[in-house]
Design brief:
The chain is of the alpha/beta class. The chain folds into three domains: about 120 residues, Response regulator (Rossmann fold); about 130 residues, 3-Layer(aba) Sandwich (Rossmann fold); about 140 residues, Alpha-Beta Plaits. Helices cover about 50% and strands about 20% of the residues. It is built from 15 helices and 17 strands. The chain has a five-stranded parallel sheet with strand order 2-1-3-4-5, with helices on both faces. Strands 7-6-8-9-10 form a five-stranded parallel sheet, with helices on both faces. Strand 16, helix 15 and strand 17 form a beta-alpha-beta unit. Helix 1 crosses helix 5 and helix 2 runs parallel beside helix 3. The chain is flat and about 80 Å long.
Amino acid sequence: MQRVLVVEDSKVVQQVLRHLVAHYLNVAVDFAWSLAEAKEYISNQNYTLALVDLTLPDAMNGEVVKYTLEKNVPTVVLTSKIDEYKRQEMLEIGVVDYVIKDNRDSYHYAVKLVAQLLRNQGCKALVADDSLLSRSLMKQMLEKQLFDVQVAHDGEEALKILKKDAEIKLLMTDYAMPTMDGFELVKAVRNFRGRDDLAIIGLSGAGKHGLSARFIKYGANDFLTKPFMNEEFHCRVLQTMEQLSLIADIKESAYRDDLTGLYNRRYFYQFAESLLKETARKNSLALLDIDFFKAINDKFGHEAGDQALKQVASLLRSSFKGFTVARVGGEEFAIVLADISLEQAYPLLDAFRSRLAAYDFVINGQSFTITVSIGLANFQNVTLTSAMRLADKALYQAKAQDRDCVVQQS
């Protein structure tokens, strides 16, 4: 579980940070006023990241930063001013980054930086460079940003790694490499990984004009000239990953039903079609319909009907973790049970039907019961249209059998 420690002695600044943290971070956050209090927190909790003020009443010379780093807590520093000596000292002892707090936007940047670093945790990155020193340096810098980093000594090795591991989200590639240079690597990678799925940052030595434009045209998201400053490296990587995260959020939003938060009909059809390409897998498809839903709307009103849909969706989500659940109509839901045969799917669905029927739904202070009819069909070596037709036929039979039951395709 991710957890963040914020150490700041100014009441005004801490109030601003608390407000921003509530908006941007969906993790547990503890606030400390001093080094002593920070030590107490760290002795009792494990922290993913720390955001700390460089100067505190009981730690005037940055002792809090040294302490958090000694305890292996990646640390972002807040400071009102910094000279070149202090900057070098901070980088040498291993802080992730520092933020100069000279206006409200700086606090906004600091919290967004923390948010992106938390998203980076466990995210896979690949560094492709024929220089051992350069590879090692970038690996170390990316690990400070909480990435899980792999390395490749040339473009061909990097391409093989990327083809095997679709979870890699960031590629940093040098231009000049043996067997396959950075341009050829980027062009090859973009044949199977798009800009919204894999971020690529190109690198090359200074003095080679036009390389940045060519990298971008071939499919890179950004470019860095070596040697680069630590701050520039961190900013470019974080901004690139933030863009990737924003695109992912937009796509996720487009695939979600606004009311229930489940996947919507569009996503369901795209996912189901892709699943059919894996013909060797045994899958099942279930269609669920809330019984007498119109009566709920008529008795309690449409707002109450929406509340009922949300509660049913919540039960579906908790009961079918690991499976794809979608709202495909007004009161109709679909579940794709991948790698589950009809014989395995039937008891799972019947158990959910029983759980739902026994659940005490409460709307506007009134309790009532909801039941569902479920149609179950085989979802292997058939078209999606055929599978939907079979599941719908089984659902119709369930409704004809006094509802509140599961019917398997005949």
